[in-house]
Amino acid sequence: MKAIFSVCVVTVLFIFFVYADDFLDSAKKIYEFDKWQGRDGALKQGILMKEVNLSPYEVISERSRLRTSGETILRYGLKASRKIVFEVSIFVGDSILEAQEALLRFLSTCTVTIPNGSTAGITVGDVCFAAKDGNTVALIAFTRNNVFIRLSLLKVDETSPDITEIAKKIDERIKQEEEAKDAQDLKKPLITGFSVAKDTTAPDTPVEVTFKTEGDGLYVEIDEGGGMVYDDGGKKYFKAQNTGEYKVTVYVRNERFLVSKRTITIKVE
Amino acid sequence: MRKTVLVILCVAVLFCGACKHKKKKSHTPAPTSTITAAVTVPTSPQTGNITISYRLIDPRTPTVNADVKVYYSKNGGNFVPATQGAGGDPITNLTTAASPGASHTFVWDSLVDLGIGSFNIVIKIVPYETGTTNMGTAGQTTSFQVINAEATITVGAKVFDPKMPNSSPLQVTYRVNPSGIDFVMTVKVVTATGGTEVVRLIDAQTKAGGTSHTTTWNGKNANAQYVDTGDYKLRIEATYQGLPAWTKEEAVHIVRLGVVGIQFLDNGADGAEYQMMYHIRNTSLYTYYAIPSNKPEWAIGKNSGDVADLDTNDGLPRVLPSPWTNLNSPPQDATDPAGVEDDNYNLPVCYKRASKPKFQLTIGSNAASNITANTQLGCNYPITGMPIRVIVDSATPETAGANENISPAGTVNFIANTTLPDAVKKNTITYTIRFEYQDGGTWHQISGYITTNHTVYTIFDKPKLHDSSTNPPYLPWVKCVDIVCGWINGPATESQICSIVVNKVNTFFGIQYDTVSGACWYTTGSLSLQTMKMSDFIEDYDANTFTKVNCSDCACLTSTFANTIGVDHKALILGYTTGSIPLNYMIAIGYSDWIKPFGGWFSYHAVATKDDGASISDACCTLDCDGTPGSAPYTPLLPVNEPYASYNAMLSSNPSSYGTYAKWRCGQQ
Fold first, then answer.
1. For residue B4, with 0-12 CB atoms within 10 Å meaning exposed, 13-18 middle and 19 or more buried, which class applies?
2. CA distances from B500 to B354, B381, B471, B497 (A)
3. 3-state class of A230 per DSSP?
4. How far apart are CA B95 and CA B106, in angstroms?
5. pTM higher than 0.80 for the full model?
6. CB-CB under 8 Å, A16 with B576
7. Best to test chain B binding among A25, A29, A83, A109 (most B CBs inside 10 Å)
8. Is the Cβ–Cβ distance between B139 and B38 less than 8 Å?
9. Contact present, B563 and B274 (Cβ < 8 Å)
């Protein structure tokens, strides 16, 4: 019985990894991933986007992808109309390879093979891909060091900005950013003391969770794992209506888009 | 001789008759005593127990005590003995005295002798020497008026909740007999204990006797405040020319009735209920809020600092909540740590189509004073001998009789009498909740009723949003359920639902294909399992700030909307590692031209399938179904449950050059 179970588990894992490896392997071939440049560069302490002047455009809204791809999407538009004109997606990896794999993942979900940026005369980043809508560049995806940037025009018309210029500004900013010696040297936001008062609680019974964060310009997001985390009297509590095992994850992103996350498990029974 | 005897007999008979007649005419034979009664005429009018003052005069020395007999004559009729009432002097062994005599009183219970009415009365008092038949000289009054009246008062119901919505004021009927007299009438409400006046409904109005009059009481005091719960009396007081008032009272129980919770429940095979959730609990995305399955969906109650669940602290009834219409987030409450309004709300409900909803009523447990702020009151029931029951029109108690003899804070389960529509749609159902009390074996209605409206979505079947999780975010989102129910809005088969969902995804939102890169805009993750960023999609839908979509987005939208209402779909990836897809002509979503996008090749294509790939639905691409999809003319077809082979024959110029890569129910955030 144990053997059958083990075989099943192994089979499931095998299928998962085959899918995953299959998937990336295929993309790697298509995009000649092994030839990508810049892997020997330094790690950057993220990018301080607020120092990148994209006037007259400004951030109208943000979108978090911390729970899935780890990206943050800044949606830019004109202040007066608040209409979104283009998006800048930012991902900062712990390594250059991680950033380039994020770029590869993005490319792999496009239904068309995206041309190398050089074919459109775009030379930003270590690795760059770009796509045009007519004669207008509508998509630029590039990595510089451990930073993956994706720029997308929402609509192409005569008022559309030149996102090549925007990409250059962002790329220049990344170049100026401070370097880190290694992944441990990245000035990620800190999540300390993440704990739960009791590992096990009853349905609808709050249990206190604690954690502290440190860093500049922090954005905190809590994946409640299907339960609910809420503030009460300056403290945070978790509760869930149904029995089960809940994984509560705290994501913290700083103003340089460096992300930390911690997970705890709480049983409700 | 015989004639003489006959004449004598006749004369004798006539004489005797004359004597009898004389006796009838006068009760008073010739005096045999010197005692004389002198009677004082009472002032008119009199009523009830009437005190007759008289003097007994005996000129002799020593005087002799007397007994008296008292008679009355009504409206000129014969004298008949008067009934002695309480008080006054006895009627035997009374002292006498020389003129002006010894004073005495006789209390006449006129009500016993006369009953109700208006009368002209003469009182006669005949004295006797005590213990003998020696009769003195009688005295009598001249005629005086006696009015004996009777007041009655009745109420429309003995149990009244003036704060009950839709209640009518309490009907009060009052009357004073006899007719022919105008009485001055006052109708008031007094406390049952102590008789303190609460409010005067009729204030000293002259009204005709013998006629029923009506007024109403709205349950408020003289200051227009709702009276506190408790026992009260309706009292009528009638007077006539200074006579003592005739009064009558009728008890009424002021109660506080109401429902503070309606929790919809799963009704097993007769009605599966499905928990829904909002995708924004507070102000940010991804703080999900599952509508609790163990709490009422409709509720009123105490907020922090409140003293009662049925009333606010000023003693006014709580406003009943209307259905909550924000589809993204629940009502907010600044005092609730979770940020969700938890005491006064009306959240939507989701049942399988053709269900009979089952729901639990929670009866309110306390009231608040409208007179003294911040003061909790009891509901003043159960009432001994008068059980109260709750009735829901169009629903039946789950257990017979369970709705009778309710108590504050009790619960009663009901099952709807009629089924919800056998359709996928948004419904508004209304329950009318009433209360009755039992008195004398009969149920009587308590004025007023509560009407509650509920948004109830009926969906096709159990939602199938994710393979493993039944927690947020893998519960049906209210917004998504609302959108799809709006699309279907009626009876539909599984195939019809597929068709509607695919067509609506293609046209409803006005979204356009990303012809630049075919990149995912609302889905993330690798093609082995993607997550639909439904929060972002809805945000853009609400703000009309759509970006673009690709096939993954369309496949995940289609499958998520279908799965939300229980029509099982997966996303299916064609091509990719199994080979690129050479394309025929198509119309991409949001466009109208027939094109071969991206130079005629997809690296992959995502579609939706309800049967693991045997058939395919594609909201992203309108294909040419005329049998020659590689060239004009084109016959447009938005594929819905199209067999795999025929779908691919339309999509691709070489269907055998690729296969299926993966299929999954997408995640949802």
1. exposed
2. 20, 54, 28, 5
3. strand
4. 14
5. yes
6. no
7. A109
8. yes
9. no
Whole-angstrom Cα distance, residue A136 to residue B60? Answer: 145
Residue A11 has pLDDT above 70, yes or no: no
Please provide the average confidence, as pLDDT, over all residues in chain A.
90
How far is the C-alpha of A22 from the C-alpha of B574, rounded, in Å? 14
Structural tokens at position B279: 């995708």
Q: Is B566 exposed, middle or buried (0-12, 13-18, 19+ CB in 10 A)?
A: buried
Q: What is the mean pLDDT of residues B216-234?
A: 98
Residue A239: count of CB within 10 angstroms of its CB: 20
DSSP letter for B518, please. Answer: -
Burial class (CB in 10 A: 0-12, 13-18, 19+), B322: exposed
Q: Is A204 exposed, middle or buried (0-12, 13-18, 19+ CB in 10 A)?
A: middle
Equal fold, B36-147 vs B150-254 = yes
Contact A152 B519 (CB under 8 A): yes
Architecture of domain B150-254: Sandwich (2.60)
Contact between B465 and B668 (Cβ < 8 Å): yes
Question: Where are the domains positioned within chain B?
Answer: 36-147, 150-254, 259-459, 493-668
Beta strands in A83-126 (DSSP E): 84-92
State the Cα–Cα distance between residues B277 and B350, nearest whole angstrom. 10
Contact B515 A133 (CB under 8 A): yes
pLDDT tens digits, residue range B106-137?
999 999 999 999 999 999 999 999 999 999 99
Q: Of B229, B39, B60, B69, nearest to B144 (Cα)?
A: B39
Cα radius of gyration (chain A): 21
Gap between the Cα atoms of B83 and B226, Å rounded: 48
Q: Is the domain defined by B36-147 classed in CATH 2.60.40?
A: yes
Binning pLDDT at 50, 70 and 90, where does residue A82 land?
Answer: confident
DSSP B121-182: EEEEEEEEETTS--B-B-EE---EEEEE-EEEEEES-SEE-TTSTTPPPEEEEEEEESTT-E
d(CA A120, CA B59): 150
Chain center to CA of B44: 53
Q: How many CA atoms lie within 13 A of B313 on its CB side?
A: 8
The nearest alpha carbon in chain B to A67 belongs to: B669
Residues of A in contact with B576 (CB under 8 A): 23, 26
Backbone φ, ψ for residue B135 (5° rounding)? -85, 140
Residue B547 contacts residue B634 (beta carbons within 8 Å) = no
**ipTM of the complex model:** 0.90
